[in-house]
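Appendix B, Record 12. Input sequence as logged:
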Amino acid sequence: MITLVLGGARSGKSGVAEALARDAPDPVTYLATGIAGDDADFATRVAEHRRRRPATWTTLECGARLTDALVGVEGTVVIDALGTWLAAHHDFEVDTGTLLEALDAHRGDSIVVSDEVGLGVHPETAIGRAFRDALGRLNQVVAARADTVLLVVAGCVVVIKDGSR
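Logged structural output:
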């Protein structure tokens, strides 16, 4: 089962994904694509996410190497998030085919978190528009493959797609 959880910044999407994982079969592996580095604000957000996760979960900080990390993981997996994975690649070019193959091959539930950037302000810069467009295309591809697609708005969950592929 693949579940895509979309939402804007601070919408509660990661919390929703974590709640879904708590109700899913063990073991749970959390694949973190965002690595804080020297960004103090982002480091605070990462620490907040870590505090919320149960100690029984395995966390792998995979960054740009998401598909490599996903291969071989058993049980439930939470991927948080596609936006930071995309941003870690030059010109926002990722191998979506390999990602979909890894999700399809995964034995267990996959809960994928991604930013919904198409509802916000039109980016002023060319790179901002390129990122928005690339993530929008990536979200569409993953949503087409997902069994369930949820949109989180102000902590409320809206079911976009519920059922089988």
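The longest helix spans residues 126-145.
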